[in-house]
Design a protein that fits this description.
With about 140 residues, the protein is of the alpha/beta class. The protein contains four helices and seven strands. Strand 5 and strand 6 form a beta hairpin. Helix 3 runs antiparallel to helix 4.
Length: about 140
């Protein structure tokens, strides 16, 4: 199982819309722009965390996570199907955003802060799981 983060664009998909439309257990599909993580491709069963960056967002942080159910790359188009899981409904109302979350987001995204989709190295994935658990409990 691999872990990824999907950075949401608050201009096109504001946090208020995310809170209204994304619910645990529902199936969704979204396009994926740039993908960072050479040699890695998402697979069904992988985890994806949803993140709003502090630049351009009035309410940054980790908003939830999901299980990837399908991944398609064809004709220059990439699409991800996913199902949000607990504690996503909690996180969308109380995003994880403290100094640890900021440090982790910067670590995962590296020097390229703009983009859509990043592969999360195993050590950072462990920090992500622990941070979400601590924040939601």
């Amino acid at each position: 199982m691999a872990t990824w983060i999907y950075q949401l664009d608050s201009k096109n998909w504001p946090p208020e819309r995310y809170r209204l439309e994304i619910w645990e257990g529902e199936r969704w599909s979204w396009p994926v722009g740039s993908k960072r993580g050479k040699g890695h491709s998402p697979e069904p069963g992988d985890v994806v965390a949803f993140f709003y960056a502090p630049s351009g967002s009035t309410d940054p942080g980790f908003y939830g996570w999901a299980v990837i159910t399908e991944w398609y790359e064809r004709d220059g188009f990439t699409e991800m199907y996913f199902r949000p899981v607990a504690p996503s409904d909690y996180l969308k109302m109380n995003p994880w955003w403290d100094s640890a979350a900021k440090k982790l987001a910067d670590e995962i995204r590296g020097s390229v802060k703009q983009g859509t989709f990043w592969f999360v190295l195993p050590e950072a994935a462990s920090k992500l799981r622990a941070g979400v658990h601590k924040w939601s409990h």
